[in-house]
Amino acid sequence: MFRSAVLACLACLALCLGAASAFLAPKTTRASTELMALKDMPGAMPPLGVFDPLGLADTGNEETLLWFRAAELKHCRVAMLATAGWLANELGVTFPGDLSYGQPFSSLSHLPNEAWDVVPYAGKLQMLVFIGCVESWSEAQKPHYTKGGPMGLQCDPLGLAENMNKDFLATRQKSELSNGRLAMIAIMSFFAASSVEGSVPGLPFPY
Question: Which phi and psi angles does 40 have, rounded to 5°?
């Protein structure tokens, strides 16, 4: 079960590397000019403020810092979706209809790792191809986010961000990052609890 999940993650990584140049951090040296103030970017919040014990923010120029932030934002959003999906699956919440011909969504196990094993090979392939297409499309946008372009997929069909004042938008951005950071910890805990008995106190095994 766990081996299958690991193989799925490796397959996803291999697919995303298809547009390798788009995902590499800009190769830069320490800029002679002052770096963009990390403390002024969304995400520096009490009680920790700027938390960068390894000094990664000082390893390049502003493009490098923006690449780091874009990577964090992407991981935050994926982790929030993954955490919500894991909990829904754990509670037995499924889509109506069939996952594939003659196989209803309700046939999925309430254990997420086992549910992935039940998904047909063609279904797994469709998901991985879709992820690769979304990644390639988002990285191909001009101007690139490391050059001053918008960060992320910019999925705002209702135009909510356009009607927010600057201070309120900054608050919402901080909230998204806070929730995303917590979700990254949560999903890692779920994987640990489902793989190693007793690794996460309070969670059953397998989870």
Answer: -90, -5
Question: Lowest-pLDDT range, 75-89, 136-150, 174-188?
Answer: 136-150
Q: What is the CA radius of gyration of the chain?
A: 20
Looking only at Cα atoms, what is the longest distance across the chain?
A: 63
**Where do we find the tokens 């490391």?**
146
**Which two structure tokens, joined as six digits, stand for 172?**
């919402």
Instruction: Classify 199 as helix, strand or coil.
Output: coil
What is the rounded distance in angstroms from the CA atom of residue 26 to the CA atom of residue 65? 10
pLDDT tens for 75-90 read 999 999 999 999 988 8
166-195 and 62-90 helices, crossing angle to 10°? 60
What is the C-alpha to C-alpha distance for residues 135 and 81, in angstroms, rounded to an integer? 16
Q: What are 119's two structure tokens?
A: 């998904």
Tell me: the pLDDT tens digits for 87-140?
A: 988 888 888 888 888 888 888 877 787 888 888 888 899 999 999 998 888 888
Distance linking the first and last C-alpha atoms of the chain: 12
- The overall pTM is greater than 0.90: no
